[in-house]
Backbone:
């Protein structure tokens, strides 16, 4: 308050200067900010700093003698003068210290042109780091590690120096430098040290170097055995994805060999190719030839052959979906995959490719120019549908789904989707003749899409009503399959239609739907773009539950599995799908258990940037099964906060809500936050935990809500607007009682 008043009096310059001298003599840290601001703007600062000296000079000049009673006065004057001199010295010392650069700035200056040389470990940089590592002061180690981690090239003259860093292998603070040295200096125990590196967090700082090694254009056999093999095996073991593009034939061969050995040993279902992103365009002809030769010349049994081909083709298709880089994939790759699609000797590969093509077609990234989005694709799918025997239901169902989405994608992109009369008749025939509900429904939908011609497709309630005027069961099957076809006009319309259809005919359809939903949850181990496509039963069921909960709950209790097994199945399914609707569905039952915490762990990280979605599910919670659930939430919060995950704030928001509902005390929540923030609410990463992700803002929402439910008050979550709006209202109350944050004296009435 005094500091603000001091700056406000700038009009009366003499009074402000007098106030400055008085405040400066107090040597109090509180007004120092305002005094410093004044000092920067004052021209005659030197005169003011010597104000006391001037007064004393005149006083002494006028005095001819001192008696014994003046000793106390002289002592006080001397101390005041000495104090003023010390303050002046401190001001100038601070300025001198500010001019001294930090070690990190000194290190940065060693790179003459940071934009050009920052990724090169020069001999000057290596020498500077070596000298710093020998010091006991480790204040700037993190900053040095950050800079070194971007150095993917080492000057030849610096190798001998960084080799000495291997001595830090056992130093918990400096072992990063030992691992960095091993990546550049091959020794007999390099493999052992690199294996050890992946058991620490230091590999995270070395991702750039690892990626750089995998993208080399040529390698020696020694480098492959001592560096690349342990790197690939270590990254594979810890599920690390390097996003590297393979540019070297020897490295691609190494990965393909490791993949064959994995399949033959049957020890893991995860591919070694998951470590890298793809291969460069210049290696694609070699990869295509390798696939073709393997399909014809290998001596493996058919199951092994198909599994290997599936792995490689999946890798190729995923790359085409993950990036919209049309230049990186050649037409020869497309032609190779289409050839395999027609090969009836590899039936599993055929079905996988059909599902993969469907995954491409429904992707938002696949547009004109994508290697698979071409007129020829429609004809290839028509040929498969025409030639596939009726007993190949898996392939026929997959191709009908891909074909329908092909027609819709072409329609949306305004490409030619005209379908011949022969194919239209074929689709109608398959729809009528097939004993499979799925094939019959998909063939019917493809037939309807094919008759659209080049008219812009628009799905609406009227379109569904006019085209799907079918018996109840048949309409149910077709609507479910319609949810798998993607077009901007489809999603919400179809979801509403299927929900309303089940509600309108609940006596005929609800039991059937619940059994299909439960089966889907129990068989959800491998849901991905290459597996069999199924309707989103969980989302449809959740919307049905919240719109007609009593009827849904009563029907669920009459099933063979009932509520508890159903909720357990939701929990298990969340591990495979990380589906937010599993969380929402479980919360809609009202009571949360440890299974809910498990689902939150499985899916929450993916949706940490969607707080409102999570909060809408949290609000459905009405009870907690036991204290162990709260303890598990506390443990999860601490784990995620310490790993600097914003998901921890979503967990904290749930804990705040449970506090408002009376299941936890505010003191408990404050204690948990204090543990992870070092007993200080602002001793944490301000970049990650800022604005609405600041735990302090969450805690401001807490108060004692005694009798809240009885008063019928609505619980609302904290927002920045709430804080600003209520700050002025509470400031007087806070001034009167500056006690503990969560006492009744400080509250946010929202």
Residues:
């Amino acid at each position: 308050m005094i500091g603000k008043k001091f700056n406000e009096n700038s009009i009366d310059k003499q009074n402000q200067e007098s106030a400055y001298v008085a405040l400066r003599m107090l040597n109090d840290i509180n007004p120092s900010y305002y005094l410093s601001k004044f000092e920067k703007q004052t021209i005659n600062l030197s005169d003011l700093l010597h104000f006391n000296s001037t007064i004393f000079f005149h006083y002494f000049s006028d005095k001819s003698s001192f008696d014994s009673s003046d000793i106390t006065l002289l002592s006080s004057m001397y101390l005041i003068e000495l104090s003023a001199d010390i303050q002046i010295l401190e001001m100038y010392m601070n300025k001198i210290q500010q001019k001294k650069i930090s070690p990190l700035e000194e290190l940065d200056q060693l790179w003459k042109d940071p934009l050009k040389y920052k990724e090169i470990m020069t001999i000057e940089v290596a020498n500077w780091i070596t000298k710093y590592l020998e010091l006991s002061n480790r204040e700037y180690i993190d900053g040095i590690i950050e800079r070194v981690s971007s150095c993917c090239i080492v000057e030849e003259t610096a190798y001998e120096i960084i080799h000495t860093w291997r001595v830090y292998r056992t130093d918990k603070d400096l072992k990063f430098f030992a691992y960095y040295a091993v990546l550049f200096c091959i020794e007999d125990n390099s493999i052992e040290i690199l294996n050890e590196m992946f058991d620490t967090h230091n590999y995270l700082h070395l991702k750039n170097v690892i990626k750089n090694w995998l993208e080399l254009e040529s390698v020696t056999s020694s480098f492959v055995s001592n560096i690349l093999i342990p790197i690939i095996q270590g990254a594979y073991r810890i599920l690390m994805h390097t996003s590297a593009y393979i540019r070297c034939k020897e490295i691609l061969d190494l990965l393909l060999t490791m993949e064959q050995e994995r399949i033959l040993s049957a020890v893991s279902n995860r591919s070694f190719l998951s470590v890298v992103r793809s291969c460069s365009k210049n290696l694609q002809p070699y990869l295509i030839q390798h696939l073709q030769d393997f399909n014809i010349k290998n001596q493996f049994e058919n199951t092994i052959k198909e599994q290997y081909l599936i792995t490689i083709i999946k890798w190729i298709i995923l790359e085409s979906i993950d990036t919209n880089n049309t230049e990186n994939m050649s037409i020869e790759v497309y032609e190779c995959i289409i050839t395999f699609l027609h090969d009836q000797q590899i039936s599993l590969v055929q079905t996988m490719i059909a599902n993969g093509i469907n995954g491409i077609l429904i992707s938002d990234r696949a547009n004109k120019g994508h290697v698979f989005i071409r007129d020829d694709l429609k004809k290839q799918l028509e040929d498969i549908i025409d030639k596939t025997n009726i007993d190949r239901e898996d392939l026929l169902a997959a191709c009908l789904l891909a074909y329908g989405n092909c027609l819709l994608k072409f329609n949306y992109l305004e490409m030619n989707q005209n379908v011949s009369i022969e194919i239209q008749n074929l689709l109608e025939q398959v729809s009528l003749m097939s004993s499979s509900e799925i094939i019959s429904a998909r063939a019917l939908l493809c037939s309807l899409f094919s008759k659209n011609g080049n008219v812009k497709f628009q799905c609406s309630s009227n379109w569904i009503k006019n085209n799907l005027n079918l018996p109840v069961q048949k309409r149910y099957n077709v609507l479910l399959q319609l949810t798998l076809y993607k077009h901007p006009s489809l999603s919400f319309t179809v979801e509403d239609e299927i929900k309303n259809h089940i509600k309108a005919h609940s006596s005929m359809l609800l039991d059937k739907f619940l059994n299909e939903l439960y089966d889907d949850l129990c068989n959800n181990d491998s849901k991905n773009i290459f597996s069999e496509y199924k309707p989103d039963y969980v989302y449809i069921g959740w919307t049905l539950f919240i719109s007609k909960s009593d009827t849904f709950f009563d029907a669920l209790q009459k099933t063979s599995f009932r509520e508890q097994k159903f909720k357990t199945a939701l929990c298990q399914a969340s591990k495979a799908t990380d589906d937010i609707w599993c969380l929402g569905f479980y919360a809609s039952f009202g009571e949360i258990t440890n299974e809910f915490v498990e689902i939150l762990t499985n899916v929450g990280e993916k949706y940490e940037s969607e707080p409102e979605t999570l909060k809408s599910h949290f609000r459905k919670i009405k009870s907690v099964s036991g204290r162990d659930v709260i303890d598990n939430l506390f443990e999860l919060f601490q784990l995620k906060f310490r790993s600097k995950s914003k998901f921890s704030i979503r967990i904290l928001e749930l804990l705040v809500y449970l506090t408002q509902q009376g299941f936890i005390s505010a003191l408990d929540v404050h204690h948990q936050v204090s543990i992870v923030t070092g007993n200080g609410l602002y001793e944490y990463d301000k970049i990650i935990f800022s604005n609405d992700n600041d735990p302090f803002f969450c805690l401001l929402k807490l108060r004692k809500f005694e009798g809240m439910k009885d008063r019928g008050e609505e619980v609302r979550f904290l927002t920045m607007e709430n804080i600003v709006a209520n700050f002025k209202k509470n400031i007087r109350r806070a001034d009167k009682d500056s006690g503990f944050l969560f006492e009744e004296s400080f509250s946010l009435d929202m």
Remarks:
- Residues 533 and 595 are 27 Å apart (CA to CA).
- Strands lie at 120-121, 153-154, 245-246, 278-279, 591-592, 623-624.
- The chain has five domains: 2-99, 103-185, 186-276, 284-373, 499-707.
